[in-house]
């Protein structure tokens, strides 16, 4: 039976000619557009830009593969079971973070944005476990390729919580990093955050308990 790796090896061996300038698939070197899809290198925790053909090789979420295709699913979680005290127990220094389960590490990891990009937080696993028990929608998040994106207001208001593709999180962090000014990010960074969450809200399908 031919595996995805056999297919990739054959494609690569057939592409001996010099490739045109521009962005190319990181698997088979096919030219790709600016708008393209991604797969995750699970062990390396790395996003790879790929063509449609290579992307389709890794869409089976039940297969034990080294790479996994990033889906295009956006869900909003109204009335998510998270308050200010619970957020503080996670020990994340800002009111914005994304969480995903890394199957290679067999645990959930958390990242928050800042002037240097995505910073990993030392997640309090007991606090995260308590959230997972209180909030069953956490179980909807697909390992490695989807994340829970959370924005907690400065007051006691309800947090914004979304299930998003993992590449959307890194796109957000990268865009914020280029706009960050000074200690608190500045007005341009705050506007970018507002605009990004507005776009996410418009794309998301509401999922209630």
Chain oligomer state: single chain
Total beta-strand segments:
10
Q: Give the radius of gyration.
A: 19 Å
Provide the helix percentage.
25-40%
Strand order of the largest sheet: 7-6-5-8-9-4-10
- First-to-last CA distance: 42 Å
Number of helices: 6
Beta strand %: 15-25%
Globally, the shape reads: globular
The biggest beta sheet is recorded as: 7 strands, mixed
Compute the average pLDDT. Answer: 88
The class by helix and strand makeup works out as alpha+beta
Low-confidence stretches: 11-19
Q: What order do the helices and strands follow?
A: HEEHEEHEEEHEEHHE
What does it look like?
The chain has 209 residues and is α+β, with helices and mostly antiparallel strands. It contains six helices and ten strands. Strand 1 (37-41) and strand 2 (46-50) form a beta hairpin. Helix 5 packs antiparallel against helix 6 (186-203). Mean pLDDT is 88; it is low at 11-19.
């Amino acid at each position: 039976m031919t595996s995805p790796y056999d297919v990739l090896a054959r494609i690569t061996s057939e592409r001996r000619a010099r490739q045109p300038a521009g962005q190319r698939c990181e698997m088979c070197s096919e030219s790709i557009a600016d708008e393209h899809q991604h797969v995750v290198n699970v062990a390396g925790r790395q996003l790879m830009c790929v063509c449609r053909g290579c992307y389709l090789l890794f869409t089976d979420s039940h297969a034990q593969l080294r790479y996994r295709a990033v889906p295009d699913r956006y869900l909003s979680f109204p009335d998510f079971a998270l308050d200010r005290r619970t957020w503080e127990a996670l020990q994340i220094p800002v009111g914005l973070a994304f969480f995903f389960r890394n199957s290679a590490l067999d645990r959930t990891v958390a990242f928050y944005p800042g002037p240097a990009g995505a910073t990993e937080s030392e997640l309090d696993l007991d606090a995260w476990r308590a959230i997972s028990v209180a909030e069953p929608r956490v179980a909807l998040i697909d390992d490695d390729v989807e994340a829970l994106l959370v924005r907690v207001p400065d007051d006691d208001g309800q947090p914004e919580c979304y299930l998003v593709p993992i590449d959307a999180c890194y796109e957000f962090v990268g865009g914020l990093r280029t706009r960050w000014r000074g200690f608190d990010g500045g007005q341009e960074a705050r506007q970018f955050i507002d605009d990004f969450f507005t776009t996410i809200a418009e794309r998301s399908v509401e999922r209630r308990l």
